[in-house]
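Weekly structure sync, notes
Attendees: PL, DS, HV (note-taker this week)

Item 1: Enoyl-CoA hydratase-related protein
DS walked through the input record. Source organism listed as Rhizobium mayense. Sequence as pasted into the shared doc:
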Amino acid sequence: MSFEHDFANGFLRATCSDAIGTLTIDNPGRKNAVTAAMWRAIPQAIRVLTDEAHAHVIVIRGADQDFSTGADISEFDSLRKDAETAVVYEALNSDAFTAIRHCRVPTIAAIRGICYGGGFGIAAACDLRVAEEGARFSVPAVRLGIAYPADAVQDIVNALGPQMAKVTLFTGAPMSVDKMVAAGFLLEEIAADAFDGEVSALAHAIAANAPIALHASKLAVRAVIEQDSDLLREAEVIGTETFDSADYAEGRAAFAARRKPHFTGK
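Item 1 (cont.): predicted structure, written out as tokens:
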């Protein structure tokens, strides 16, 4: 059964099919710039995909040829004009990045073309990132005379490593897809004619697995990255619960019968 729901006047689109959710940044007229309304809608869209559409994995991508140029700068004169308004605006950024980072299912950034600024932040908050050949990356905040939101820098450091994060944030210079692969930001670079198929294959490979086990695994990785002992204990509790789950019984039965398992998340 397929699922579709639009947010932010259609500029953000959530769809789901075969337990694979897709969140599309759909503002191609502005190279998928993210408006304040879109930032505000991202947490809701993530919740809808996980809670209502029951996605096992979420792919985040841009419509047409670009992932995203980042925040819509045309709004800055009114919505981000000084420290007082910036605090409100950046709270929207923070909530969006947090929703992606803390999403209970794995997330994949499927990157084509431009991936700049807030678009880079969205990608950095995802669990996995792949890019089409020729994609371009940059965090140009310093070139606008502003600092990148401090709490979002954690994703950039975790995804790039400290030194590459520093040069990316300090220079604002464009980075090639090759450099992003070498830094570990990207899982791989994919040829244009194979991109959609490879993204789909990766998403299907994840979605085919047991949701509770995926959740426990994601929490455990987060706990290690964030050095959070409470989160680690939560991951341990959920991991233990998998042994009493119907999915574990199904996994054993499928292995014995040499067939593919059908997991339900129970």
